[in-house]
Amino acid sequence: MKNYNIYLVTAVLFSALYVVLAYVSIQLITKESTLILLDNELQSIKARSKQLAIISADAFKMGVEKPRIVNDIQKGIENLDESNSFISVIDWSGRIICYPDRTKVGTIDTKTNAMGGNMKTDINATDLYKLINDDQTIENNIQVAKLESIPESDLIVVSHINASLIKSKLDVFKSRFSFVFLVLGLVLLLMLLGITRLLKNHYQDILEQKSSELQDSVVNLSKLNLSLENYQKNIAEQKKEEAKEVQNAIDDIGDSAIKDLPKKRLLTYVRNELMPIAIEDISYIYLENTITYIIRKDGKRFTANDSLDQIYSSLDNKLFFRANRQIIVSIYAIDKIIKFGNNSLKIETKPSSEIDIIIGKNKASAFKQWLDL
């Protein structure tokens, strides 16, 4: 179930982000595209209307009769009202003289009349875009772009923009563009889910490897601690046997042999008083600020004049291990061995040591050998 949750969360987050980005992108792209289209249409229709006005004015100057000029204009614009832009001709009263749809000839152009014959009216692409998007009744909506009077006559050339047709084309463009974004989003989502699967499998393999290494480490530590217990028992039994053998040797060879035997006690100081401590009672010995401290099993601390090297050389190597330059630990004081870092070991003692007893990776093998591993 957890695996499916990863894909579900990825799909939901990506879809939400993609929908927002797609919506913003579609709005921006369609707006810019529409503005370019409208600007081109406006420039084109204004240029055509101006050209028509100039040609018509020249015809009037040449003495061509008005009915002939009107008839020629009507033939030129016939049935063009279904395009994005078209031209019509009205007189100063607002009556339609020429129009692509002949049925409207002779009627009053209400929109042009509403403009009051303002010849300076000149709509731009931005204004027209707002009209197209803000007008809720855009159907059959024809916007007047510009009025161009024909000199030497009472006629006015009117530039029209078919807003309803442009609006319908804009809607088709948006729907197609949205479909493209939808397909692209699905493709990207599938690719993202595929990448997520690859990454999940990759990191799952790494976690399984780490877990396997951790299990091996736990098994090794368990073996190490078990070996510690067995070693402590064996040492205790050996010490009993050695004590008997030492006593027998002393009885046989005399006091001269005592000097060659391992020390039984260490001389320490409490304040200014000498205090002998039995080797078996020592938990660990460490060096701090050039002072050698001896910690007894009951937790009491004593000092010694000898250096750590001198003390270690006089101790039984079966009972004491030099963990590092700073500390010597007794086999009887070791309570637990745990992993520390990648390849190091940490020893926990009874009583708990005042400083961390760390066996580095360089001495870890010697420590295991000391425990007969």
Class from helix and strand fractions = alpha+beta
Biggest sheet architecture: 5 strands, antiparallel
Strand order of the largest sheet: 9-8-7-11-10
Order of helices and strands: HHEEHHEEHEEEEEHEEEEEH
**Cα separation of the termini:** 44 Å
Number of strands: 14
> Radius of gyration, rounded?
51 Å
Low-confidence region ranges: 256-260
Our estimate of the beta-strand percent is 15-25%
Average pLDDT, rounded to a whole number, is 80
Compute the number of helices.
7
Helical fraction equals 40-55%
- Global outline: rod-shaped
Give the helix/strand layout:
Layout: H1 2-61, H2 66-77, E1 85-91, E2 96-98, H3 110-114, H4 125-134, E3 142-149, E4 155-162, H5 163-253, E5 265-270, E6 273-278, E7 282-288, E8 291-296, E9 301-304, H6 308-314, E10 320-324, E11 327-330, E12 334-340, E13 344-349, E14 357-359, H7 361-370
Antiparallel strand pairs: 1-2, 1-4, 3-4, 5-6, 7-8, 7-11, 8-9, 10-11, 12-13, 13-14
Features of the shown structure:
single chain, 373 residues, alpha+beta, five-stranded antiparallel β-sheet, four-stranded antiparallel β-sheet, 7 helices, 21% strand
Structure description:
The chain has 373 residues and is α+β, with helices and mostly antiparallel strands. 52% of the residues lie in helices and 21% in strands. It has helices at residues 2-61, 66-77, 110-114, 125-134, 163-253, 308-314, 361-370, and strands spanning 85-91, 96-98, 142-149, 155-162, 265-270, 273-278, 282-288, 291-296, 301-304, 320-324, 327-330, 334-340, 344-349, 357-359. A 5-stranded antiparallel beta sheet has the order 9-8-7-11-10. Strand 12 and strand 13 form a beta hairpin. The longest helix is centred in the middle third of the chain and has 91 residues, at 163-253. It is rod-shaped and about 150 Å long. It starts with a helix and ends with a helix. Mean pLDDT is 80; it is low at 256-260.
